[in-house]
C-alpha cells in the first residue's frame, strides 16, 4: 500500500498554493480503498480511478453520449478519461508560450463569479468582451454550466482541461458559430484540429450522425473544410489570456489568429 | 382469519410486491433522516463528539443521517433502473424469495420499512417509529437497515411494534462466503458499479457509498446476534447468491 501511495505523496509535497487553485490535496479526506487504487484526491472534486475504471468510463460515456446527446456530462467524462496524453502535450505547449505560461501560473477561471458582467456590458460594440456577452445572451447559455474536472489524475492537467472547457464559448464567439447541433459540430472540428483531444475527434466524427441530409451536405462541403483550415492556421487558442483581451476588437483578434468569416450563415439550419 | 385466498396470492408472487400484498394491511414506512433527530438529542446531553462510518469515510454521527438522505434523494429518480442494471435483475428474485418466506395472508398487518413507496405509506424514522406497541404481524426491511445510523435502535423499534408472535424479516447485503466469488464480487463492486452509476445516473459518489456501506455492514452471524440482542427469538438466516445477500428472520415472543 505504501508503494502505491508514494507517488501521491510526492505530488502532494510538490503542490503550490495558487489563487484559483482548488483546496490543497493535503486537506482532502483520504479514503481507504479495498481495490488498492490510489487513495487521496489531488484536487477538489477529484475521483481517483484505476485504469480499468477509466476504460469502462470511456466506453460507457461514449455509448451514452451517442444514445442521449443531452448528456453533456458524458462528453466531459469521455474527454477526461481519454485525454491524459494529449493534455500533457497541450500543457507543454502552454508552458512554452509566454501568455500560456501566465495562464498556467495564474489559473484564471471563467464563471459568473469571476466575470464582471457589468463591465463587459459597458464595453464598445465589436469588442471581444461585448461580443462574448452577446453570444451568451443570444444563445441563452451561462459560463457556469461547465462541470468540474473529476477523472484526471494530475491537478495541473485537470486545470488545462477545465480551461479548455471554459474557453469553448470563446471559440463559438471567435468562429461566429451558434450553439445548435451544427454549430457545435463545427466548433468540435476546429477544436479537434487545434487540441488533438480524442473526445473532440470522436465528437467531430460521430456528431454528424444525427444530422439531416441537407445539413450534412453543407457541413461536409463548406463548414468542415473552413473549420479545419482555420484550426490549422491559428496558434493554440489555449494560449490566449481572454480575460486580458476583453477590450480588444473581435475583428482584430480574428485577424491576429487568422480566422476568416464562416462560409455560410447557419442559424436557420439543423 | 380467512385462508381461502392464499393460493391466489402465491400466483401473484412472481409479479411484484403490491399484488402480493392485496388483502393484507400493508403499511410502508419511508425513512426520513434515520437517526438524525434522536442522535442530535443524545449529543447535546452527552457533549461528546461521536463518530461513525459513512461508507469508508468517518463522519460525525449527527451528520450521517443527512448524508444518507442526500444519497437517496440523488438516486431516487433512477433507482429502479439502476437496481436492474447493477444486479442484472437478480434483486427481483431476492425480493420474491423474501415474500415467499413471509407467506403473507389476507388480514396480515405488515409494516415494510424504508420501502420508498407502497400502498399506504407513512413518513417516519426507523429509530423512532410513529406506531404503538404490539401493532404488526410482520415487520420487513429490504436493503434499508444498512443505512440506519443506529441499527440496534431500529431493531429495538422493530421488536416494539411487532405483536407477540410477530415476525421480523430483513433482506440485506451480507458477506460472501466463497473466497473466489468474493474477489470477483469485490472487483465488480468497486470497478464496475460506480462507473454504472456515473454513466446511467450521472452519480459516481452515491454508488461508491453503496458498495462501501455494504462492506461496513455486519456479517450474517454478527447481525444475527444483534437481532437476538434486540429481544428476538428463533433468529435464523439464509444466505442467497453465495452470501451477497441474506434474509434474517426472528420472532417476538
Question: How do the helices and strands line up, and which of them pair or pack?
Answer:
The complex is a heterodimer of chains A (270) and B (253).
Chain A: H1 2-14, H2 51-67, H3 72-82, H4 84-96, H5 98-106, H6 117-122, H7 128-138, H8 155-175, H9 181-195, H10 198-206, H11 213-233, H12 250-257
Helix pairs in contact in A: 2-3, 3-10, 4-5, 4-8, 7-8, 9-10, 9-11
Chain B: H1 6-12, H2 17-20, E1 25-31, H3 36-46, E2 51-54, E3 57-60, H4 61-75, H5 79-87, H6 90-102, E4 109-113, E5 121-124, E6 136-142, H7 151-161, E7 162-173, H8 179-201, H9 204-216, H10 220-229, E8 233-240, E9 245-251
Parallel strand pairs in B: 1-4, 1-5, 4-6, 6-7
Antiparallel strand pairs in B: 2-3, 7-9, 8-9
Helix pairs in contact in B: 3-4, 8-9
Describe it for me?
- The complex is a heterodimer of chains A (270) and B (253).
- Chain A has helices at residues 2-14, 51-67, 72-82, 84-96, 98-106, 117-122, 128-138, 155-175, 181-195, 198-206, 213-233, 250-257.
- Chain A is mainly α.
- In chain A, helix 3 (72-82) packs across helix 10 (198-206), helix 4 packs across helix 5 and helix 4 (84-96) packs across helix 8.
- In chain A, 36% of the residues are buried.
- With 253 residues, chain B is an alpha/beta fold.
- Chain B has a seven-stranded mixed sheet with strand order 5-1-4-6-7-9-8, sandwiched between helices.
- The model of chain B is unreliable at 1-23 and 32-47 (pLDDT under 50).
- The chains are: A mainly alpha (270), B alpha/beta (253).
- The A-B interface holds A 29, 31-35, 47, 50, 52-53, 56-57, 60-61, 63-64, 71, 73-74, 77, 150 and B 56-57, 186-187, 190-192, 194-196, 198-200, 202, 204-205, 215.
State the gist of this model.
The complex is a heterodimer of chains A (270) and B (253). With 270 residues, chain A is mainly alpha-helical.
Quick one: which chains have the greatest interface?
A-B, 21 and 17 residues
Instruction: Let me know the number of strands of chain A.
Output: 0
Helix proportion range of chain A:
55-70%
List unreliable stretches of 5+ residues of chain B.
1-23, 32-47
Shape of chain B: globular
The total domain count of chain A is: 1
Oligomer: heterodimer
Number of helix segments of chain A?
12
User: Ends of chain A: how far apart?
Assistant: 53 Å
Structural class of chain B: alpha/beta
- Rg value of chain A: 19 Å
pLDDT under 50 segments of chain A (min length 5)? 1-32
The percentage of residues in β strands of chain A lies in: under 5%
Task: Kindly report how far apart the N and C termini of chain B lie.
Answer: 20 Å
H/E element string of chain A? Answer: HHHHHHHHHHHH
The counted number of beta strands of chain B is 9
Q: Mean of the pLDDT scores of chain A?
A: 85
Strand count, sense and barrel status of the largest sheet of chain B are: 7 strands, mixed
Catalytic activity (chain A): 4-hydroxy-3-methoxy-5-(all-trans-decaprenyl)benzoate + H(+) = 2-methoxy-6-(all-trans-decaprenyl)phenol + CO2
Binding site for Zn(2+) (chain A): 168-169, 172, 184
InterPro entries (chain A): Coq4 (IPR007715), Coq4_euk (IPR027540)
Keywords (chain A): Lyase, Membrane, Metal-binding, Mitochondrion, Mitochondrion inner membrane, Ubiquinone, Ubiquinone biosynthesis, Zinc
Amino acid at each position: 500500500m505504501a508503494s502505491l501511495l508514494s507517488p501521491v505523496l510526492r505530488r502532494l509535497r510538490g503542490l503550490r498554493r495558487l489563487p484559483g487553485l482548488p483546496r490543497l490535496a493535503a486537506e482532502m479526506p483520504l479514503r481507504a480503498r479495498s481495490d488498492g487504487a490510489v487513495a487521496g484526491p489531488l484536487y477538489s472534486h477529484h475521483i481517483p480511478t484505476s485504469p480499468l475504471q477509466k476504460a469502462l468510463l470511456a466506453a460507457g460515456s461514449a455509448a451514452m453520449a451517442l444514445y442521449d446527446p443531452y448528456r453533456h456530462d458524458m462528453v466531459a467524462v469521455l474527454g477526461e478519461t481519454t485525454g491524459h496524453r494529449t493534455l500533457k502535450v497541450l500543457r507543454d505547449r502552454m508552458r512554452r508560450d509566454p501568455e500560456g505560461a501566465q495562464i498556467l501560473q495564474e489559473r484564471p477561471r471563467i464563471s459568473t463569479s469571476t466575470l464582471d458582467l457589468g463591465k463587459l456590458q459597458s464595453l464598445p460594440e465589436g469588442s471581444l468582451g461585448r461580443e462574448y456577452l452577446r453570444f451568451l445572451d443570444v444563445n441563452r447559455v451561462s459560463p457556469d454550466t461547465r462541470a468540474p474536472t473529476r477523472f484526471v489524475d494530475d491537478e495541473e492537467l485537470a486545470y488545462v482541461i477545465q480551461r479548455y472547457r471554459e474557453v469553448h464559448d470563446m471559440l463559438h464567439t471567435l468562429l461566429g458559430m451558434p450553439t445548435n447541433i451544427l454549430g457545435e459540430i463545427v466548433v468540435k472540428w476546429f477544436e479537434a484540429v487545434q487540441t488533438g483531444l480524442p473526445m473532440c475527434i470522436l465528437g467531430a466524427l460521430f456528431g454528424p450522425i444525427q444530422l439531416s441530409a441537407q445539413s450534412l451536405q453543407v457541413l461536409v462541403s463548406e463548414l468542415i473544410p473552413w473549420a479545419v483550415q482555420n484550426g490549422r492556421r491559428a496558434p493554440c487558442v489555449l494560449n490566449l489570456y481572454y480575460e486580458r483581451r476583453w477590450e480588444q476588437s473581435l475583428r482584430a483578434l480574428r485577424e491576429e489568429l487568422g480566422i476568416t468569416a464562416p462560409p455560410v450563415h447557419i442559424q436557420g439550419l439543423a | 382469519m380467512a385462508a381461502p385466498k392464499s393460493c391466489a396470492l402465491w400466483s401473484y408472487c412472481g409479479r411484484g410486491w403490491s399484488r402480493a400484498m392485496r388483502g393484507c394491511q400493508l403499511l410502508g414506512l419511508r425513512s426520513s433522516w434515520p437517526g438524525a433527530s434522536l442522535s442530535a438529542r443524545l449529543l447535546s446531553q452527552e457533549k461528546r463528539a461521536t463518530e461513525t462510518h459513512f461508507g469508508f469515510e468517518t463522519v460525525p454521527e449527527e451528520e450521517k443521517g443527512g448524508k444518507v438522505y442526500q444519497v437517496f434523494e440523488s438516486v431516487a429518480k433512477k433507482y429502479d433502473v439502476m437496481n436492474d442494471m447493477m444486479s442484472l435483475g437478480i434483486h427481483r428474485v431476492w425480493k420474491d424469495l423474501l415474500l415467499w418466506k413471509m407467506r403473507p395472508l389476507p388480514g396480515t398487518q405488515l409494516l415494510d420499512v424504508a420501502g420508498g413507496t407502497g400502498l399506504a405509506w407513512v413518513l417516519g424514522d426507523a429509530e423512532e417509529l410513529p406506531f404503538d406497541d404490539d401493532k404488526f404481524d410482520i415487520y420487513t426491511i429490504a436493503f434499508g437497515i444498512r443505512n440506519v445510523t443506529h441499527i440496534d435502535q431500529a431493531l429495538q423499534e422493530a421488536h416494539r411494534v411487532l405483536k407477540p408472535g410477530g415476525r421480523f424479516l430483513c433482506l440485506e447485503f451480507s458477506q460472501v462466503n466463497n473466497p473466489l466469488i468474493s474477489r470477483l464480487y469485490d472487483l465488480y463492486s468497486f470497478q464496475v458499479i460506480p462507473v454504472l452509476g456515473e454513466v446511467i445516473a450521472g452519480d459516481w459518489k452515491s454508488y461508491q457509498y453503496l458498495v462501501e456501506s455494504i462492506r461496513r455492514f455486519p456479517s450474517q452471524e454478527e447481525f444475527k446476534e444483534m437481532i437476538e440482542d434486540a429481544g428476538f427469538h428463533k433468529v435464523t438466516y439464509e444466505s442467497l447468491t453465495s452470501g451477497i445477500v441474506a434474509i434474517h428472520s426472528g420472532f417476538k415472543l
